[in-house]
Amino acid sequence: MQEKEYCVSGFNWGRIDIDKNSVQLTHDGYLIFKMNPKDFTKSSISNKTEVSIEFDDSKDGDALSEIKFFAPQTEQQNDKDNATELYDKIAEVTPTNAASKEVCLFENIGFLSPKGHYDVKIYEDSVRVQNKTYDFKINYKDIARYYKLRKDEDTSFFILNLSNPLKKGKSVYECLVMELSSNEEVTAELHLTKEFEDKTGLEESMTDNELDLFVELFRSLCNVPIISSGHKFKTNDSHFLKCNLSTNEGFLFPMSDSFIFVFKRIRIIMFKDIKSVDILRMNASNDNKTFDFVINLKGRRGSLQFTGMNRNEYENLVGYLKESQLKLEETLQNTERRMEEDDDSGDNDEEYHAEEEESGDDDIMSESEEEEEEQQ
Prior knowledge:
alpha+beta; PH-domain like; eight-stranded mixed β-sheet; 23 strands; globular; disordered C terminus
């Protein structure tokens, strides 16, 4: 058995050696640390100089969850930079990165979160999102839900809700948000084995708009529901309410079991996490053109206040809240009662004016009748 001395001088840089049984870092022949690739859950390249390895941290007790390697670029650079070469070697020995057959490729897809344009590679068991700076791999089993949210006639948001969030530096992404064309026709050439074609029902050549192609692919590749906007809430030919959350302007989509706020990032609020809802700055005599919508969360998680909603959307939103059986705060209930009373009083005023007009006609008729009697 070959013995190797450990480096105890505090060095954190050196030579990295990788094979299928180990990944080890040494300095001048002294071992700094050694890892077993079987313990890796995911490897990714975070930028042009940084490669990260994630470990299974679901077990009880303290455990290493992530380690990052810094691979600086050199003046004499090959076709690949140092970080990419290191990532490729680590990816080969990472169990969950084991290569599967590539099905198709979509180039230069616009992402709202994480922001940028990425190539999307569809594999038999995963999807890979990468550009010159970042490289993420998402296994289909780590996708909890898909959302298809209509932004306008030309564009929709396609959202992957992840059960195992992605990490990009200090940022954590529970969702990937793509902006896809709803009317631009594209053709995707798929590389399918006979077995995989029979299993998924996909065809070797598919032509459709960009959004529907993604929907069809993910519906066939991953057995999770695809949820669309517009089923329970739709107003003025849109499926959302334009508003602000703090200083962030975005789109609030009322869904069948949740609210989804889309901005630079994304926020999903499930009904099961909502204690009550309220509407502020809204009554019949108010001249404000906008109102605020408040979601009070269960526990000690506080509340979310969406501001600047168009006053014309009030009735649609309240109807949706009642249909969804969400608890209405007393402020909102009082507002509803006042507005109903104002509507009733408005109807009574109209009836009163109508009665006055009728009685006025009777008076005129009676006066003319009196004149006729006097003449006789």
